[in-house]
Design brief:
About 25% of the residues lie in helices and about 20% in strands. The radius of gyration is 20 Å and the shape is globular. With about 270 residues, the chain is an alpha/beta fold. The N and C termini lie far apart (about 45 Å). The structure holds fe (ii) ion (FE2) (2 copies).
């Protein structure tokens, strides 16, 4: 399927690929992004191995993958960067990732593939040159990963929010921008209650994000949130949300007594006799 064109002018393009893992069925829908400015380009949150071939082909229709300048990872989860080995082979791009993950990411690759190719971003973030512009790497630690960045594109005014603002939907639904935040919150709440770390962090992030001029919030799963009313509605909702450690108490830390459904003793015994 063709990517969603989030933004285009003559020098700058933002594309969203939404349906690379759909066929596998068991993996959560994920979005990957290509940002091109003048003669340079970056892939944001390139993803896992499931959709790698298709994504590489899809990107190749818009920019030569071997010329990519950066692979930029919001954090180090499997759906963000498990395909790193293949990207390191197919391109000459630098990996841009939190310093927290800088020495863990090479575990995704064969020996030596990341040598001299990792730009570790300090906790404070920074502005990364791309073509004639800069991508802003905004601190988003603990939303949900310990070392986590969001990406603000000052040309398109898009804020790429990784796992914040996520909705668990199909690839087709991910293509449809959300303007009615009240209707959308039920699709987001369960994920944010479990995957975000605490209300304190959400409030700190909202205080920072409200200072930006934002055309859309684009998460790494599900649909973009578009327009001032929906974006402000998202801020109003998320800064009040109780989540993560706010919701855990001693009941969540008890010695378990129920069984995890696994192989039964009988199956194990019969296998032994084969
Ligand atoms: Fe994640
Ligand atoms: Fe994710």
């Amino acid at each position: 399927m063709t990517p969603v064109e989030l933004f285009r002018n003559k020098d700058h393009v933002c594309l969203m690929f939404t349906d690379m893992v759909e066929e596998a069925g068991v993996a959560v829908q994920s979005n990957q992004f290509l940002v091109v400015d003048h003669d340079q380009a970056a892939v944001l949150d390139p993803g896992g191995n499931l959709g790698f071939n298709e994504l590489l082909l899809g990107i190749g229709r818009h920019y030569p993958p071997q010329d990519l300048t950066y692979l930029i990872a919001s954090h180090a989860d499997p759906d963000i960067i498990a395909s790193l080995d293949r990207w390191m082979t197919a391109t000459k791009a630098q990996l841009v990732i939190s310093k927290v993950w800088e020495r863990f990411a090479p575990h995704f690759t064969k020996n030596g593939k990341t040598d001299g190719r990792v730009i570790g971003v300090p906790d404070a973030g920074g502005r990364l040159p791309l073509g004639d512009t800069e991508l802003w790497l905004l601190p988003a630690h603990f939303l949900h990963s310990e070392g986590n960045f969001h990406f603000y594109d000052p040309v398109s005014k898009i804020l790429f929010t990784g796992d914040l603002g996520v909705s668990i939907v199909s690839g087709e639904m991910a293509r449809t921008p959300v303007r009615d935040i009240a209707k959308h919150i039920p699709r987001m709440v369960g994920f944010h209650e479990r995957y975000m770390v605490s209300n304190k962090i959400l409030r700190l992030w909202v205080n920072m994000a409200r200072q930006l001029e934002i055309s859309m919030l684009v998460p790494q799963h599900g649909a973009p949130i578009v327009g001032t009313a929906a974006i402000n509605g998202f801020f109003d909702w998320i800064e009040k949300l109780q989540c993560g450690v706010d919701l855990f108490d001693q009941r969540g830390y008890m010695i378990p007594t129920s069984q995890v459904a696994g192989l039964t003793g009988r199956v194990l015994a019969s296998r032994k006799t084969v």
